Amino acid sequence: MSHPLSRSAWLLLLPVMVASSGCGQTQAESSQNAPPTTVIVSPPVEESVTDFVDYTGRTEAVETVEIRSRVSGFLDKVLFQDGNDVTQGANLYQIDDREYQADLAVVTGDLTSAEARAEKAKTDFERALGLKKNRAISDEDFDRAFSSKLEAEAAVASASAAKARKQLDVEFSKITSPIAGRISRNLISAGNLVTADNTLLTTIVSVDPIYVYFDVDERTILNIQRGVREGRLKSRVQGEIPILLGLATDQDYPYEGVIDFIDNRVDPRTGTIRVRGNFPNPKPEVGQRALSPGLFSRVRVPVGEPTRSLLVTDRAVGTDLGRKFLYVVNDSNEVVFRPVELGARHDGLRVVSLGLNPGERVVIDGLQRVRPGSVVAPKPGEMRSRPSRSGAAKPVVPDSETDADERAKTGE
User: Fold this and answer.
1) Cα–Cα 20 to 30 A to 300, which of 6, 121, 197, 356?
2) CA angle 220-47-363, nearest 5°?
């Protein structure tokens, strides 16, 4: 015997179950009748590109000089502005040279006396030589005259050397720049005592050209050597190897140079070899030079000849368990899963070295909304187009599909 309350409950639940069943059928029919998902597609870009490898390095000056005095004395004048460019031979410092000038005057007088004695000794010897021919002088007196001449000549040479030494002291009192470059700040103020060969006054670095040192890994070295043996690459002895450089604030690699040095051994601790690039660094009409020693730099080294390649945008590339793939739309508008092998980036696009054919329609936006085998509505786009603010370009969605989505959200 059924309870009256249970019978009433069944009567109340029956309309709800019928309505739920009808709503499920409506949603299933709506899903089956939904239009294909719209995706943005574009053929790969075909360009001639050169393979390259990127490294990081540091700029260094070709020449670096520490300015020290070669004589001791009190610093009299500082003749440069901190941080300015200086030319070779430019006056930098003046040390008080009055003491050295006095010493030079003393040795100059000694040289004059030695030259007078040498002239007298020469005259005496010539007179003795004439007397010897007439046998009017003994051999002892002749030898004495000859020795006096030699001693006087030696005294002249010694006095001349002493004068030259004191002259150097006077010249060293004026400190000049041995190279052209950019000078650092002054480290010693005027009036301080400067010790010869000890007191550091300032430093100068050359600025044009400038070096960039970086380390190349062992695998790249072996690949380059193989390319040289096979004739695909040029060695440094066959010609200049071009190299590109960009600084931390540069978007690209605006500076061009050449490799002018490769070390003679691989470092066994790091498996790398030191390489040096040489870059011109002229002074612009306005402002400072672009490159200076000690800057962090990005280095790009070409490792092959230009080849015709296919390129796609990075946002078209998917990853499946570490494997890279693209979604390609075939002639039936079906999505095809395409494993690919990728290369380096060129002008914002990625090289596809294997797995893609020219002219194929690659899904560049809407990857998250499609699956392999699904039918889509492809819409042409540009491979170099930018994504939307959300990180991917938003495909154009038909009004009917938008309305269906809104009805699904509201449960209508």
Assistant:
1) 356
2) 100
pTM equals 0.65
Question: What is the pLDDT at residue 388?
Answer: 52
Rounded to whole angstroms, the Cα distance separating 66 from 179 reads: 11
Beta bridge partners, 52, equal: 302
Q: What is the mean pLDDT of each run of 10 residues along the chain (412 residues)?
A: 48 49 50 75 86 88 94 93 91 93 92 90 83 78 84 91 92 93 92 92 93 90 76 64 88 88 88 92 86 91 80 88 90 90 83 88 87 89 69 40 42 40
Residue pair 312/44 in contact by the 8 Å Cβ criterion: yes
Task: Choose the CATH number for 35-47+308-410 among 3.40.630.30, 3.30.420.130, 2.40.420.20, 3.90.226.10.
Answer: 2.40.420.20
**Residue 354: which residues within 8 A CB-CB, separation 6 or more?**
340, 341
Torsions phi, psi for 234 (to 5 deg): -100, 140
Residues 291 and 241: their CA atoms lie apart, in Å, by 20
| The pLDDT value given to residue 162 | 92
- SS3 string, 19-74, reads HHHHHHHHHHHHHHCCCCEEEEEECCEEEEECCEEEEEEEEEECCEEEEECCCCEE
